[in-house]
Write a structure and sequence with these properties.
- The complex is a heterodimer of chains A (382) and B (272).
- Chain A is 24% helix and 32% strand.
- With 382 residues, chain A is of the alpha+beta class.
- Chain A has two domains: 237 residues, Rossmann fold (3-Layer(aba) Sandwich), CATH 3.40.50; 125 residues, Beta Barrel (OB fold (Dihydrolipoamide Acetyltransferase, E2P)).
- In chain A, a hairpin with a 2-residue loop joins β1 and β2.
- The two termini of chain A are 38 Å apart.
- Chain B has one domain: MetI-like (MetI-like fold, Orthogonal Bundle), CATH 1.10.3720.
- The longest helix of chain B has 39 residues.
- The chains are: A alpha+beta (382), B mainly alpha (272).
- Chains A and B meet through β6, α3 and α5 of A and α7, α8 and α11 of B.
- The structure holds adenosine-5'-triphosphate (ATP) and magnesium ion.
- The site of adenosine-5'-triphosphate (ATP) has 12 residues of chain A, from β2 and α2.
- Magnesium ion (MG) binds next to α2 of chain A.
């Protein structure tokens, strides 16, 4: 695998290769608790060495999905396949995966060292080998000085590092992480994110991480599965999810977005034209749309991809709406403008603050034009 | 803290006197020089020395301790298993009933427990003696242990066990190397509780005993019928000491483990 990376500068994206074999395969999995469906017919593939994120609002079934990979829950129907082997009847202690728990779940009656050595002891590894591996792990998470402490003598961040070391010690094929950074403050969290990515790249282990923090998912992942109410709404790389969400729900969940309703007037092979509801403003998109003419759709545009100006732009006949500035938020390097369209909908526009003396600054109640390039608009059918 | 009013003070003094004056009197008179129980004739520990000469009392004490040790150990094993099952087998049909049945023996009149056990031993023609007492004590002490263990397990973070299994530990081994060490204080406190309950018991032991097996409470009871002697006071004082320290240690262990859980939860930042 390592050779491939140096051989070509091609982006590493096995999910786009037709013949790549998935490492983990979740196949039509449904999980019911009584009459409640926690996971609804989910199918997804995870490839070797991926940093795969499960992202979604609270209660959408992320933990449940992870627990099915670890073996603590059995699917009501469907199959979980890891490295070509059907895991349906394999109990947790025999699976080639390790999990880092949301609550860390350190053994309170053992020292840091003993916690990390626990999994190795279960494999009956030789004593000196265990000592060596534990030492390596302690060094990896920078906890050498705390080896003899008990978990209740550690801070939250230190516990989290021990939990990580413990789950990595056995060098599992897959590491499952359930909101591993949930209990950390922002700064420590960001540091640890990079640490995680480093460790993942050094050890070459496949990571599956649960989070409900979209920034975290964007930072660390090779791909993200956005979940909602037990189903997977979209699986794609962070960039793709952000640039080309496949539904309003995904677009709104990841970052800020303006969603404008409109009706398709024309579809061409590489573009489409949409008329914004209640106006005659035509919107042109940079991609064709898989819909029919006259169909109602939604146009999603990210606030930072819009341009706000006092004068109408040169080709102001398309991709341009007029409105009135209702509110301005100054965020230092950015300003956020709330612009009200004629039909009352508020459009949010962010602009980087490049000072230009010649230009009059935009203030409250100004009549402005908001425009964007055809590439910026994404058409959503649902 | 609120200030004590005169009324509160009076209530406390009255209440505690009511509870403890008889026991304090008993303890004081066990150190009485005189053979007459009600006449104070100076301090002496001679009755304690004389106790050791009394074959009947020493024999009864040995049996009592044997019974208490065996019964509490058995009760702890069975009670831990029962408590574990109650805490873990999620929600099944009749769970409430089952739960109630575990508690029932705690409130059952001892006479009835004793009588039913006697009937059972007679029915299966089990030779009555030390072993029948032990079994009887095991039965009722087990309920207490089950309750203690069950309450400890309700605050137990199951993901700790899952973490162990995740790291390759079988479920059975997980119980012995993870769960049991963590709930050990509760187990020990259950054992101590059973031990003192067994030491205390007169009614059930009387029902289920046979020839040759006399426990200390039974011995004291029969001696008292011939008149209270300072020896009885001395034996009783020793028993009070044993039982009190058992209860104190048990509740101390319980407190400490609870404090530790609370602390651990605060430290982990996930206190409810
Ligand atoms: N053992 C269970 N019995 C019944 N319902 C359950 C059980 N475990 C989970 N659920 C339900 O399944 C749904 C998904 O739960 P899950 O823990 O997977 O959510 P989550 O996405 O991890 O949420 P969070 O971000 O809050 O951790 C929830 O509605 C939850 O109430
Ligand atoms: Mg969760």
């Amino acid at each position: 695998m390592g050779g491939e990376v140096t051989k070509s500068r091609k982006v590493w994206a096995p999910w786009n290769e037709a013949d790549a074999k998935p490492f983990v395969r979740i196949e039509n999995v449904t999980k019911k608790f009584g009459s409640f469906t926690a996971i609804d017919n989910v199918t997804l593939d995870i490839y070797e060495r991926e940093f795969f994120s499960l992202l979604g609002p609270s209660g959408c079934g992320k933990t449940t999905l992870l627990r099915m990979l670890a073996g603590f829950e059995t699917p009501t129907s469907g199959r979980v396949i890891i490295d070509g082997e059907d895991m349906s009847t394999v109990p947790p202690h025999k699976r080639p995966v390790n999990m880092m728990f949301q609550s860390y779940a350190l053994f309170p009656h053992m020292t840091v060292e003993q916690n990390i050595a626990f999994g190795l002891k279960q494999d009956r590894m030789a004593k000196d080998e265990i000592t060596e591996r534990v030492g390596k792990m302690l060094k990896l998470v920078r906890m050498e000085k705390m080896a003899k402490r008990k978990p209740d003598q550690l801070s939250g961040g230190q516990k989290q590092r021990v939990a990580l070391a413990r789950s990595l010690a056995k060098k599992p094929k897959i590491l499952l992480l359930d909101e591993p950074l949930g209990a950390l403050d922002k700064k420590l969290r960001e540091e640890t994110q990079f640490e995680l990515v480093n460790i993942q790249e050094t050890l070459g282990i496949t990571f599956v991480i649960v989070t409900h923090d979209q920034e975290e998912a964007m930072t660390v992942s090779s791909r993200i599965a956005v979940m909602d109410h037990g189903y997977v709404a979209q699986i794609a790389s962070p960039g793709e999810i952000y640039e080309y969400p496949n539904s309003r729900q995904v677009a709104e969940f990841i970052g800020d977005v303006n969603i404008i309703e409109g009706q398709i007037t024309e579809i061409r092979s590489d573009s489409a034209t949409i008329k914004i509801k209640g106006t005659d403003v035509p919107v042109e998109t940079g991609r064709s749309v898989n819909a029919t003419a006259d169909e109602w759709v939604w146009v999603a545009i990210r606030p930072e991809k819009m341009i706000i100006s006092l004068d109408a732009p040169k080709n102001g006949s398309i991709n341009c709406i007029a409105g009135k500035v209702m509110d301005i938020g100054y965020l230092g390097k950015l300003s956020v403008y709330h612009v009200r369209m004629e039909d009352g909908q508020i459009i949010i526009v962010t602009q980087t603050n490049r000072m230009r003396e010649t230009e009059r600054t935009i203030t409250w109640d100004d009549l402005v034009h908001v425009s964007w390039s055809p590439d910026a608009a994404v058409v959503l059918l649902s | 803290m609120k200030k004590f009013t005169t009324f509160n003070k009076l209530s406390i003094i009255l209440g505690f006197s009511f509870l403890y004056i008889p026991i304090i009197l008993l303890v004081i008179y066990s150190f009485n020089e005189s053979r007459l129980v009600t006449v104070w004739a100076g301090f002496s520990t001679k009755w304690y020395g004389e106790l050791l000469q009394n074959q009947g009392i020493v024999g009864a004490a040995v049996i009592t301790l044997k019974v208490a040790f065996l019964a509490s150990t058995l009760a702890t094993i069975l009670g831990t298993m029962a408590g574990f099952a109650m805490a873990r087998f999620g929600h099944f049909r009749g769970r409430t009933l089952f739960n109630g049945m575990i508690y029932a023996p705690l409130v059952m009149p001892e006479v009835i427990t004793g009588l039913s056990l006697l009937l059972m031993f007679v029915a299966i023609s089990f030779n009555r003696g030390m072993w029948t007492i032990t079994l009887a004590h095991t039965t009722f002490a087990m309920c207490y242990v089950a309750v203690v263990i069950q309450s400890r397990l309700t605050s137990f973070d199951r993901s700790i066990e899952e973490a162990a299994m995740d790291l390759g530990c079988t479920p059975l081994k997980t119980f012995f190397v993870i769960t049991l060490p963590i709930i050990m204080p509760a187990v020990v406190s259950g054992w101590l509780l059973s031990f003192t309950l067994s030491l205390d018991d007169l009614v059930i032991a009387s029902f289920t005993t046979g020839p040759g097996a006399t426990t200390l409470p039974m011995k004291i009871y029969s001696m008292v019928r011939l008149g209270v002697t300072p020896e009885i006071n001395a034996v009783s004082t020793i028993m009070v000491g044993l039982v009190a320290s058992g209860v104190v240690v048990a509740s101390f262990l319980h407190k400490r483990s609870e404090a530790r859980i609370a602390k651990a939860e605060v430290m982990a930042g996930n206190a409810p």
